[in-house]
Every structure is written in structure tokens, then in C-alpha cells.
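Re: weekly structure request thread

Next one in the queue (212 aa):
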Amino acid sequence: MLSAQAFTFNFFSENTYVIINDKKQCWFVDPGMCDAEENRAMNAFIQDKQLSPQGIINTHAHIDHILGVQELKDKYKIPFGMHETELPVLNMAKASAAMFGVNITTVPAPTYFIKEGQPLKLGDDTLQVFYTPGHSPGSISFYYPEGNWVLAGDVLFQGSIGRTDLPGGNFDTLISSIRTHLFTLPDHTTVLSGHGEATTIGEEKRYNPFLR
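Done, posted below.
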């Protein structure tokens, strides 16, 4: 079974996740560590739990979700994957960082591209991949049916949705992604978002003002 451990990093209060299997192998999802203290906190967790990092998988490439990628790539010598259509967003990372007053010296290069419908395997466990654009052109979500949770990045939040006014965003596309992919999941599915508290599919169907 896979478990997901959440951390909140950087000045955007971004949620970074560590997905762990029974063999103590792990993936990093959207690592947002932005300084030495946050990097130490993440590395201390890995050491304390005696985890073996296997890779980095990103839901998308906005600056707050990639700040810690290069650090982890270099330290653990692990691959970094994202959706190919997210490349334009990644390539704008330095300009985006400057706009928010953030210093980023190296933009991490993806090692491979993650495709919808191509399962991601961590040991004996599998994540399903959904292509869920709208917040950004290459946003993807990771679904783990055995654990009844989905990592949705900035697609869906508790009582809200991802912003669509950034380059590559589109409101109608985002709503379609949520209804076509996320809202087809069981109502008891926990939604682990890129910011804020966890919610459930059922709660968002009933109460989310953007989707009722």
C-alpha cells in the first residue's frame, strides 16, 4: 500500500508530498522547498524514515511546485518526470520567479515525460495518471484507487479551483478536466491538493461554488 505524507513549503504555502510504499521506497511530488531550512527538513524526514527515493513526479511546473526539484535530483540522483505539454511553463520558470521576487538559479530539466493512461509503478504499487489541464496546459493528477486518494495539484481545492489567469490556463478546460476525470471518482475519494486542506470528491460535488 502507498501512503502520502504532506509538507507545506515556501511563501506560497505549497503542499509537497512524499509517496511511500511498504518497502520504504518513495516518490517526491511537486517538491517546493525554497531554502536550506526546508531542504534540511525534507532530508531529515527521508533519513529518519530510512526511505529510498526513486523519483520526482510533478502535477505541473509552476514555480512554487518546482523550487526543490533540482536539489532532490542532485542529492539522490533520481529522475524527474512531468507531462510534455507543461514544458512551456517550465521554460518560463526564471521569468515567473523574477515576477514574484524569487531567486532560482537552475531550472530543472525533466528526465522523462509522464503520459496519461501510462501507469506509474513504485515497487508493486501503481498510480493512475489523468491529464487534467486548465490550471496549466500540462497539469496531471495521480490516482491511487487502493488508498482512495487522488493527488490533484492545483486543479481542485477545498471549495475552490485552480486559477486560470496564468499563461496556458483556461477556465472552461479546467472545469471540463474536473468533471471528466476527478468527478468520475468515488465520492469518498480524498483529494490531496497543491495548497490548503484535503477534501473529498463528494464534498466538492455538493458544495464547491464553481462546480455545483
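Residues 36-48 form the longest helix (13 residues). The chain has a mean pLDDT of 97.
Next request, please.
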